[in-house]
Specification:
It is built from five helices and three strands. The chain has about 140 residues and is mainly α. The chain has two domains: about 60 residues, Membrane-bound Lytic Murein Transglycosylase D, Chain A, CATH 3.10.350.10; about 70 residues, no CATH class. The longest helix has 25 residues.
């Protein structure tokens, strides 16, 4: 675990990956999203442009979150992240107007877009929107 002290305050340095979200980091370290935003000078929730995020160490910060994981813990974490990603993309898809007007399996569709985009939530949403626009252009 990388720790950094800035102006007398201690921070955990979290390395950002394409699978990270502010919500996931907040839950992992038990630190409110607003606290993480403030510590990193962020106005919104977009962290994918950052290489690292500073997590303020407080009495409630989950410092153990950075301990090395065994294979079973890594598999569970990956499954949890995948489930979270599927739910997030499914909610996004469900919120977009359905150009076909039919009832769709949002979870299955979200899983498809995540799988073909290596579980990158941003790319999955972008590709979904591109497909929606293509379908709209073909229905005219």
């Amino acid at each position: 675990m990388d720790l950094k002290t800035i102006e007398g305050k201690e921070y955990i340095v979290h390395q950002v990956t394409t699978k990270c979200s502010l919500v996931m980091i907040s839950l992992k370290y038990n630190v409110p999203e607003q606290t993480i935003r403030y510590a990193n000078g962020m106005a919104g929730d977009q962290i994918f442009a950052k290489k690292e995020v500073l997590i303020p160490v407080t009495p409630t910060t989950n410092i153990v979150a950075q301990k090395p994981m065994d294979a079973a813990e890594k598999a569970k974490e990956k499954a949890d992240i995948d489930k979270y990603a599927i739910n997030m993309v499914a909610a996004y898809i469900k919120g977009i107007e359905n150009p076909r007007g039919d009832k769709r399996d949002h979870m299955g569709e979200a899983k498809y877009y995540l799988e073909v985009n290596a579980y990158d939530m941003v790319k999955a949403r972008e590709n979904y929107l591109a497909d929606v626009e293509f379908e709209k252009s073909q229905s005219v």
